[in-house]
Request: fold
Amino acid sequence: MYITLVSPKPTNNSNLTSIILCKETGNEKPGNIGATRKLNVKITNAVNVSPARETFSGLYALSNLDQTFPYVIEVVLAFKGEGRGRRIATMETIRASLAEALVEFYPLAGRLVVGSDGKMAARCTGEGVPFVEAMSEDDIGVLGDVSAIDPATLRKLVKHSDGAPTILEVPMLTVQVTTFKCGGIVIGIVMNHVLIDGKALADFVACWADLARAKPPSVLPFLDRSVLCPRRPPRIDLPHHEYAPRDRRSEGIVNPQTKPLVYRSFCFNPHTLILLKKVSTITAHNGSSIVPTTFEVISALAWISRTKALKIGPHETTKLLTAVDGRLKFDPPLPSGYFGNGIAWSCAKCSAGELTHKPFSFAIQKVHEALQSVTENYIRSAIDHVELNRVLVDCGGNACCISKWSRLPFYNIDFGFGRPYQVAPATVPNNLILVASHSRGSDDLVVSLGLPRDAMDVFTKLIQSELTLKSKL
Reply:
């Protein structure tokens, strides 16, 4: 169902307290009763698409930043298309251009392995990308607002790897192309985050789309990940609370198997965010007042509300880890088209009692300072920390991660049948909050996450009450 949150008392700032709570679903398993859209999809063909020409064969080393976030990201790109009657030609073009793109981005056609040094690497075998062709007799309009997270429906549009025992068995990339009766098209992509991050995926899709239109690639990959190799000897210059030992079992972790998750999306319009920022000034190191960024405000609001909703004890430590693109943090910046994980993770941490009882500006200050701490030295220190310790990004227990995809250039993609009108996650990993643009040309931001139902209900009420309170300031 759709729910609109509105302030119980109209005020001059009523827009501040009006956000859209998009469609809600339960766990993403097929047939879950949380499903709200009825979509029938028929798979018509499934193949592996290999590089169009011979490419490097052997082990492709990954950086330390690639080793720490073994998750899968699922995204759908929805296109209006060119109308009926071009399905076969469209499929052939997309498949053939994918094979051409894999010549340059050949690690995507390989598989993950663990090397003799205990680190994951890509074995470049050329065996290809799983590619599924599907069709629906529905119009694409049946999807409704694609930005409203709905795993039960949207995961019908991706080739996921449910049942894979470890991240090693998950392909680097899978693609599903679903055509609709009206001529609409959805390209569903699943990426293995061990190999690449969102920026690298966007670069790949841009190249792929250029080739589909018989144009020279606008971006080519920089494949040498040795630019992020550890220092010799490794040197940990800073504390790195963003990581936790691989074998640590976090207490209080939300286990989707024992506590089924529901997923909701919250849409914030620009006016709401502007007013939130105006009542949320923070203090810089030099004592001057600064207005936080939109992302800092959203991050702080989500962090506080999630901590309260999960009833984390006041004396327990809570952390918010933020994915920061480190490419431009280096001097000089990483080479254009760097293909891999170029992200570092900032860490805002404090006790749950401090977070939930101190003013809103306290949380924003924590988020802001954590983001500002991500410098070249911080990233180099993190790389060396991973070299000396068996760690992963700490997404368990009382910690959660947040990632912003709203600035990734997916809305510039054109395979020859127009640009996507919406790009959205099909689902989100446990303990990850994703911030994305609502649609092409829109300044609205959509925040999507999963929580146990009781916690999600509390989270929703808290978001409403926080916005209502701040509208009166």
Summary: Residues 453-471 form the longest helix (19 residues).
